[in-house]
Write a structure and sequence with these properties.
By secondary structure, this protein is an all-alpha fold. The chain has one domain. 80% of the residues lie in helices and 0% in strands. It is elongated and about 40 Å long.
Length: 84
Amino acid sequence: MLKKDSVWLGIAIGLICPLILYGIIYLVKIMVGHFALDKAMFVCVALNVVPVRYYFMTAKLERTARGVLAMTVIMIIAVTVIHL
């Protein structure tokens, strides 16, 4: 992973990781057919647990971890509001 300690880097990582996974799940949905995309969005947001854990515990880069965590919270709120 990246070793720079920046909130903006954390926000970028927190946004890009779920979007990549969501894109993969969306392609699988197109190929296979019926698939619950609303549940997949929650899984994609939950993927951010991995970089948060890495940056807080292993790399000790707190600003980057805070950026990922902030983006995770924003995405959880957005996904919840969209699917109410």
